[in-house]
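Hi team,

Below is the intake form for tRNA pseudouridine synthase from Podargus strigoides. Please confirm the fields before the structure is written into the shared record.

FORM ID: S-0412
PROTEIN: tRNA pseudouridine synthase
ORGANISM: Podargus strigoides
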Amino acid sequence: QKAAQNLKPIVPIKFHISSRTDSGVHALCNSAHFDIQRAPGKPAFNETQLIHCLNYHLKPEPIRILKAYRVADSFHARFSALSRTYVYRLVMGCSRYSEIPVFERDLCWAPVGSSLNVPAMQDAAQFLLGTHDFSTFRSLNSETPFQSPIRTILQVDIQPSSGFLSHHYEHRRLEFWELKFRSRAFLYRQVRRMVGALVAVGQGKLTPHHIKELLEIKDSRAFPSYAMAPASGLFLKAVEY
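The structure came back. Fields below:
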């Protein structure tokens, strides 16, 4: 918003963001909309001008504008979204925090253990797909009383991945994994709880059927306290319209 005020609008600019995230969560991309009114007689900015001008004023910040589009007045970055995709990154093979590759610090989670039972995690993930009451998989906050716990999970994928510059330390035999979740909307900390529960299955602390039981309980207090994944491994990957 500060960068946009340098465009000299005649009415203060307010950004409407597609998604909010917890502190410590990353975004590979996000989207927002705003209205800009220029002084009478001045032409409207085109998309290229907006990208260039905003990025010029964002130089010191860890954020860049990638694309800009002119949209209808009825468009809303949050409420017009068809789906949101999150990716959660794991690294296996680190027995303590100090063993996480320095370029991966705060960009992944290193659960205890050398490997995960991924087939069991994939079996467990099937219970999360579809429309359910996800009360057990949300943390409580000020919006909880006003928010429906019903959500539809469109996609859950668990795939091997690679770390940043990992080909330079192949001798360490670290395993990187990515868990991808897609839904129109998620509840507060829902993705982090789903990841934590699936990792607990992969570690043998829970069975795949426990995921179904947690869904059926519909009580956030029943969620295992040890199964909350930290914010550092979570990335908002895409918002689709």
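SUMMARY LINE: The chain has a mean pLDDT of 94.

Thanks, M.
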